[in-house]
Amino acid sequence: MTGLDKIIEKILAESQKNCDEILKQASAEVKGIITEARLKAKKESDKILAEAQKTATRKQAVSKSAAESITRNRYLEIRNAILNDIISAAYLEIEKFSDEEYFSMLKKLCIKNVQTGECVMHLSGYDIGRLPDDFEMSINSEIYEKGAVHICTVPADIENGFILNYGDIEINCTLKAVFDENMDSLKDMLSTALF
Fold this sequence. Notes:
This protein is 72% helix and 11% strand. By secondary structure, the chain is an alpha+beta fold. The chain has 2 domains: 1-96; 98-194, ATP synthase, E subunit, C-terminal (hypothetical protein PF0899 fold). It has a 4-stranded mixed sheet with strand order 2-1-3-4. The longest helix is centred in the N-terminal third of the chain and has 92 residues, at 3-94. The protein is rod-shaped and about 155 Å long.
């Protein structure tokens, strides 16, 4: 081996040593970069997962609230429909009253609604046709301190019940008007009893 070969061999050995050292350093740097990248990726994925869980929890709460609201509204609709059906059935049941029961109810309704002074009671044609002979007298015997009720023999355009006329003032005591006027209290009483 000549001197030149030895020099070349030495340069090659040193170059190889430098290359090995550079590769070793590069490998350590790559491992550090990879470790740092993994930590950063884990941190980012944890953050994304936490945000996704918050979003899912929020959406679940909103969905639950919406479902509860829909359920509550549907319950109220059904409950209201049941109450309306019961009240409608009660209204229709009055049509099945005997003449005695019906006019007894009208008498009580009249006594409750009569004002001071004389008035005219207007009835439907059907009710005038089945009116008890002593109906006017039996009402007046109970309200004589307040005034008097005179029954009009001309049929009014009403289905049932009556209208009391005090000149310019009318008191609508048709059963529909009485039911409509008392609808909220009727529903409250039924709700208390049923639900």
